[in-house]
Backbone:
């Protein structure tokens, strides 16, 4: 075969390899969007390199917090499997700690070993690699933004000199994508944990509120009722007539206890939500609040011929109820306006405004922020919407909740 033919074949082979690496990049992008957790993401990247890219083995190791701490194996795929992964790890954590994986991580630059049959201090696991017929390897640093690398991504190939310049550039891009994906999964997990903590706090607070309401409200009324009944019994025991006024008072107290119990049960689970539309449930709550507090509460609605998913309806109602309760409890307002309307792009807007004392929405104090406002935001986000609060001292407050009426896909990343 002539030199020209050989060169042509080599170019074709190079192009095929680049095509495969491009295919790996696109498959890895899909893995990024679908990753359920960090370990699954690492294993998916490694598997894509082996199954789509045709590489022999891929390996991800994380560096410890402390400089020189042992590397930790976090994901791998390929020929040799766990045994080869363990050999690479043992080599990386061996006495002189000079393996390519560790050096890439510490130097923050790719390390390429073009021919593993040539003895090299950077390949303490070379014998195990040659046993598996691996001939060359690249170790790439994993780093988030401009920070120090937190791990390495190593790839073994069956041919000598498998990593040329364009290939290295693509693989470096892949390592950056992986590092970005890892950070995104971690941020997402941290956010989910914060939301869980918030929910737990809100539940604890709601239980405390409920206990206080039962103790101070229904508890006190029942105590008065109990005393009144004992008084009536003592009179009857001595053959005296129980005064009608006393019986009327007891009836009133029993009625009051019943009303309080109903209010508590309604707060726990607003059953009327199941049979009413969101707008009617809001009107019902506003009427009840206006009667109880004497505040002028106006509800207006435009273009409200829509049906809502039950979950969206419940979350919107609970967010609205918190905003209304804040306006009643904190604002000292004489008027509250509730507006419900649909925007052309299928978004439901719910605005609760009051003419009360307002507050500083960017407090500088170190005190804990209220859970109520956080839960309004969480409830809106939970149904793919958002919320915002505008307020300033003595200028009133407006809480806006905006949620989509149509279901939108949830983005994993
Ligand atoms: N409409 C409002 N008018 C005045 N102050 C408000 C209003 N809404 C909220 N706030 C202020 O924001 C704080 C946090 O509210 P929130 O998160 O609901 O917690 P909480 O109601 O349990 O105090 C309130 O304590 C109050 O100081
Ligand atoms: Mg509140």
Residues:
């Amino acid at each position: 075969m002539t030199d020209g033919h050989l060169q042509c074949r080599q170019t074709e082979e190079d192009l095929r390899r680049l095509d495969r690496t491009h295919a790996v990049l696109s498959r890895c992008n899909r893995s990024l969007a679908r990753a359920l957790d960090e370990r699954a993401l690492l294993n998916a990247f490694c598997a894509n390199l082996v199954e789509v890219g045709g590489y022999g083995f891929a390996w991800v190791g994380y560096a410890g917090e402390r400089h020189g701490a042992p590397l930790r194996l976090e994901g791998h795929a390929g020929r040799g499997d766990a045994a080869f992964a363990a050999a690479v790890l043992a080599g990386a954590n061996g006495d002189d700690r000079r393996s390519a994986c560790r050096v890439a991580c510490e130097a923050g630059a790719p390390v390429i070993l073009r021919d593993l049959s040539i003895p090299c201090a950077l390949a303490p696991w070379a014998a195990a690699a040659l046993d598996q017929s691996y001939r060359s390897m690249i170790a790439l640093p994993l780093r988030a933004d401009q920070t120090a690398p937190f791990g390495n991504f190593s790839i073994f190939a069956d041919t000598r000199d498998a990593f040329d310049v364009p290939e290295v550039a693509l693989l470096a891009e892949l390592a950056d994508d992986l590092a970005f994906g890892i950070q995104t999964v971690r941020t997402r997990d941290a956010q989910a944990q914060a939301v869980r903590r918030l929910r737990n706090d809100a539940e604890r607070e709601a239980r405390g509120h409920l206990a206080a309401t039962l103790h101070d409200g229904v508890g006190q009324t029942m105590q008065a009722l109990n005393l009144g009944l004992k008084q009536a019994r003592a009179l009857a025991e001595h053959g005296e007539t129980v005064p009608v006024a006393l019986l009327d008072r007891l009836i009133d107290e029993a009625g009051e206890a019943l009303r309080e119990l109903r209010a508590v049960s309604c707060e726990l689970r607003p059953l009327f939500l199941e049979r009413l539309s969101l707008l009617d449930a809001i009107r019902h709550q506003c009427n009840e609040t206006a009667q109880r507090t004497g505040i002028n509460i106006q509800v207006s609605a435009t273009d409200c011929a829509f049906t809502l998913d039950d979950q969206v309806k419940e979350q919107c109602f609970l967010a609205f109820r918190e905003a209304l309760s804040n306006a009643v409890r904190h604002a000292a307002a004489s008027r509250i306006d509730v507006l419900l309307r649909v925007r052309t792009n299928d978004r439901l807007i719910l605005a609760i405004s009051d003419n009360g004392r307002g507050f500083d929405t960017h407090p500088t104090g170190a005190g804990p922020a209220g859970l109520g406002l956080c839960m309004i935001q969480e409830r809106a986000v939970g149904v793919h919407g958002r919320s915002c609060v505008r307020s300033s001292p003595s200028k009133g407050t407006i809480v806006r909740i905006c949620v989509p009426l149509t279901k939108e896909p949830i983005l994993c990343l």
In short: Residues 408-413 have pLDDT under 50 and may be disordered.
